[in-house]
Predict the structure.
Amino acid sequence: MANQNGNMYGLTILSPIIDDPKSKVSHDSALRLYLQNMPRHAYSPFTKVSGTHFCRLVVMDDVVFVGSPAAEEHLKSKYLVFNSNLYGGLDAYLAEMARKIPDVVDDIWSHCVGYPGVADPSAFAAYMKKCQIETTFFFADVNDKTVEQTLRALQMKVEFTAFIERNQGASPAGLLREFAAFWERVRELPLPPAGVKDLAKSHAAIA
Amino acid sequence: MVKLNFHDIQGFVARGYNFPHASFLLAEILDRQAGREFVRHTAGRVTSAERWQQGKPPSTLNIGFTWHGLRKLGLPDATLLSFPDEFYQGMRARNRILGDIGRNDPANWEPVWKENVHVWLAVYAQTPDELATRCGETIGLMRETAGARLLYTQPAAAIKIGGQPTSKEHFGYTDGFGNPDYEGVERDTIPGQGKLTADGKWAPLATGEFILGYPDEARELPACPVPYLLGINGTYMAYRKLHQNVARFRVYLDEKGKQYAGGKEKLAAKFVGRWQDGTPLELSPDRADPALVRNQSRNTNFTYGQDQDGARCPLGSHIRRANPRDAFGFNGDLVNRRRIMRRGMPYGDYTPEDQLASDQDEHGIVFMALGASLFRQFEFVQQQWISYGNDARLGSDKDLLVGCHSGGGDKFVVQGAADAGNAPFICGGLPDFVEMRGGDYFFLPSLTALRLIADGAVDPR
């Protein structure tokens, strides 16, 4: 099962993009325009799909080797490539995509051949699975944890480091007392939002 | 074996002069023809890397240009477009990569960096008088040729303690241990200064890591401007004026030193990876050892392979960040293309330890790093290892001393071990100990290239 490593799932979906010479703006152009204006990082709609650690959408054209000798490979179609490093099973993930961001999913995949829409979640899941290819190898750097566990762990690392810094050298009794208060406080902390805000800002600055 | 032409390489590129006095002159080229005249006359006075048969000269002179300086001197477009992006853009435009943000943002640099800094001239001398004479001659040449205008003079000098010049910097650390050994340099390989070999010995790095025109560690010629003759025997330099907040450093060290089980001096050593006298922590974790400092075959001869947890030398200490040696595994192969040649020099008055220091006084270090690729070497070290900690498993932690901590909240971790005198410790709330006051990227051509530039004979075809 190369698509899976523990509870991590490396999803790769290639959906053929509609080739319609009669359309005013070609589907691949419209899709590129949509994707390049889609909010990213902390503002990405995919932060609402809770299993997503990382995901990426790419319009794939013909494949060109810029070297010597130059080579071109012609594909049957242009493709939308969807990569997602997600936690858990594929069925639950596709169901959550359909439930949480139906408009975004429709906006994107409606440019693809045979897309049935998310209104019927089982038809949507069947379509996505039909377009799926085996991933074979993927980046799995999150220690088999859910997004929520990862966000909590990062939050706890920061809080606990600060706790140590404040209390290093304290007496055992004092340390125990402080730790109890610390634990009461941090267990109630709200879950930090997914995605990195600063990165989102710096992306906006580049754009 | 590479044989270098020391008549053609600038002396500053080949070696640190180790003179007690220096001035760095920043100038603008005023006119193409007159500017070339200035370069012609200067080229005749530039100190090459030739061996000094009669001992050290009273003074030296070296020169470098920004991209805009080379354009002003009328280099052909085909040549100008062949320089690397980062050199064309200059240090100001690279500020996000370098972490020069917040207080260190280019908007806050000294005003000279908003002017047309085209030329950098380095004068080193044995005495203040000889320094003044050589600077006077050089500035005189600017006037006589009407080719250049002096914008700024940056004085620098070795810190004197007890009347004797030392290799101390303002925070009190002995600085300047070791530079990378590379093939072609006329000296014996010093253990610890080149690259690690598979059998744990040290060998010189490839010449092309530091001087253009020769094969580098990838066995390729480094990217070189066209024509090749313009690049060979030249190199690039990152120049940074770094103000040191001496009072802030001393107060912080005093405060944290009281809380740290190992005491203030050991904490200071943990910050840097060397005791303040220069003893490497890796070799002597519990005390400074002057005999070890004096021993050239030992004072840079260490690795981190047996100290993966940073118990002796913290993972984030300054020297371990700047040159991680074998710390990232692969027998040190990951660092061989990330080395820099340093030419630092303090500026401003030194405040002895027992006197009250001020952060407002003009004192700091002129940091200069040389290498064949600013992007691959200096910028990488600055961005990934100084301003970030992921490679060292330190998350977003930055270098305690030179990292930009604007906003506070940064920390430095002493990993330590189970024994009481080496307990783990976290230094939080790091202030900015060092502030960036300005700098740029310079190309330091060979003497041949200087004469080509002066004659308008650079031909990219």
